[in-house]
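As a warm-up, study this chain.
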Amino acid sequence: MRTTTTPPSDVPQTVRPAARRTGGRAGPAGLVLLASIIVSFLAASSAPTPVYALYAARWHFSPITTTVVFGVYAVVVLAALLVLGRASGHLGRRPVLLAALALQAIAMVVFGTAGGVGALIAGRVLQGVATGGALGALGAAMLDIDRERGTRANAVAPGLGTGVGALLSGLVVQYLPAPTHLVYLVFIGVFALQAAGVAVLPGMGSTATGPRASLVPRLAVPRRLRGPLLAVAPVLFAVWSLGGFYGSLAPALARELSGSNSAVIGGLGLFVLTVVSSATAVSLGRVPPGAVMFLGVALLVLGSLGTLAAVELSSFAGFFAGTFVSGIGFGAGFQGGMRTVVPLVAEHERAGVLSALYVVCYLGMGVPAVIAGVLVVHGGGLAAATRDYSWFVVALAVATQAALLRLRARGSALGEITQ
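Now compare it with the structure written out below.
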């Protein structure tokens, strides 16, 4: 697939002009700063994962509550992506990102002072608004700086942030005092430093008009990109549904299989999955995206079957072996999907299309996880829910692979993306 730095001829810029950036242009340091914000936002979103066991013991709630608290975040991110995903193209990247960083800091305060489930949900809502409002702006801003490196950063940073947040939180809970407070104070400091960087970063303004129109909820996907996006949507949904499991129920499963209540073990599964996925995205950066997607889906099946076997054998080592393989599948599938669509996007379309891609991802992360929480309580317990979830991921991955093969066999325009 050929990457181009100009919009295709059927979308003339005279019809839909890109927002003019003001204040110069950010360099590589700006790309690092923006990628670090994605990392910190996703790290903050996964930070409560190892702490849920403490909250559950303190407030006596069930796995359904855990997955609802987790799922609320995904739902709010979706809503924010729909409503705020294109706002940065009209308001400017800087004000959108500064507002998102402020909301994240407030969410950390809410978590750090939480006295019940209601506060956890409120904190997740604030996180969801901040993350959903910022993801499109961050992704688009990185592409403004460097299209190739920005595309890679969009594929690597979310997984890296999610894993780092889970492990950092687990270490704090296990070894440091004030486990339900300290990790959130760390993130407040990080967000403050990043806000200072955004405040002076050049090229983050906009002279475009019509901010009210940008807040009308819709998926801003140009007609010519709808086919490629629909082709990769099942891949993105499948890999992020696995991420949803590891962010909500896998910590309890890891502790059950190990016979330990360690918070580090609870967060280690999500860390392994997401960090391996990020390393995979980097290592496969030069492989054609279609081949990367095929590899990702195949390994997703293999890793899920490995998890099934580990549950049947009550094998802690087998669980992490399956997680490692699934992490490669996650990284390959996500990176292949992003690289199939993102290089085709014109500058003025970036925030809207990236928001649409993340809508698919967060649907995959949130909906199956909440259903799994219900299955834990009403369907036979954690092991049974894990088996059901694994078979769901396997079935989805197989269906996705079949769809990609049909596209290639047809040799259609869509089939070109799988070459």
